[in-house]
Amino acid sequence: MKTSETTTHQADSRYAMLRLGLTLLIMTVGSSGMYVVSVMLPAVQAEFGVARADASLPYTLLMLGFGVGGVLMGRLADRFGVMWPLLGGAVSLGLGYVACGMADGIVAFTVAQAVLVGLLGSAAAFAPLVADTSLWFVKRRGIAVAVCASGNYVAGAIWPPIAQHFIETVGWRQTYIGMGVFCGLAMAALALFMRARPPGIAVEPAGSAPAMGVGAVRKRDMTRPFGLSMGTAQGLLCVAGVACCVAMSMPQVHIVAYCSDLGYGAARGAQMLSLMLAFGVVSRLVSGAICDRIGGLRTLLLGGVLQCVALLLFLPFDGLVPLYVISALFGLFQGGIVPSYAIIVREHFPPAEAGARVGTVLMFTLFGMALGGWMSGKVFDLTGSYHAAFLNGIGWNLLNVSIAAMLLFRVRHLRLRTAAA
Length: 421
What we know:
Blueprint: H1 14-30, H2 33-48, H3 52-80, H4 83-101, H5 106-119, H6 127-136, H7 141-170, H8 172-191, H9 200-203, H10 230-262, H11 266-294, H12 296-314, H13 320-334, H14 337-348, H15 354-383, H16 387-420
């Protein structure tokens, strides 16, 4: 540890479970920004008189800031503990929402989203908490990380309908200001309970195989993950993270605007987004249990294939009831994808490097969300419809599936070669 703060609590303990519950609440509050901005998109576009791609840019830069900030906050958490980044994030998130509500143009709105809400605010409540949770659990790490990451989708299930209600009753500016006061105070209060440092690095000697997933009983050479160099292996996971999340962002960012264009209204779109992310919570919990049984790579491959199926269903169906059903299926199919990256890192890389490597991979998944949110808006502006945007998402999804399948093949090949030797 690089700080004098130590812990008397053990992994898999009652305290670890209590801390997991607090982590879930913090992530639910801190992750609100990435979903509320999608609900605000039609109102912001109308007030500032900008194109759909320009109105999507605040989300894109928020996600870029979210990703870069995750690595920054992760390093601060490694040095000082997770509480201090969370407190700083609470202040920044509250100020960011207030600044959004007072913005006089799309540029000021975008800067507030990117810097205060993304880089310095919500970033503290995602990657650092996922890495922290992975160090507090050994026996049930998969389900614990899934519960932690579910807070991100609980936020998506809770906040869109709340935001839409207040947009319709008091306006989007007042909604942002009210959220700034509530989220800033709530996140700061919860952060005060997160002082203890994780014991996870001391639990597993560096280079040992984790006690989870397929092949957990075997020793793995963690200096050569998947039989590749550390940099190459990390790079492939980062590319896979970008690809899956470009595809994932298309419905999540644009479902409200899509429903408005179809004539169903923004409120219906907000309901679909909430439904999508509520089923995403179920998906993350189920995928966490599956991950403890079959390992991270297989879980990633399964989620990628199922997400592609859901995206394909958006192409022939645009009726109101089918869109509700497909939104639920999309959430159910893709919720376990992002947490599986954290498990893959813990299975194949040294435990002492978990924080930095988990933060880096999750940063690239957020880059994918950012790129996909803007790209879908740009495709819409060029074509006048979302049909081509769905096809674009499917293409990126296939890239993710290809990388996951290739890495899984390499793991199997290495295992067979080791057994033959």
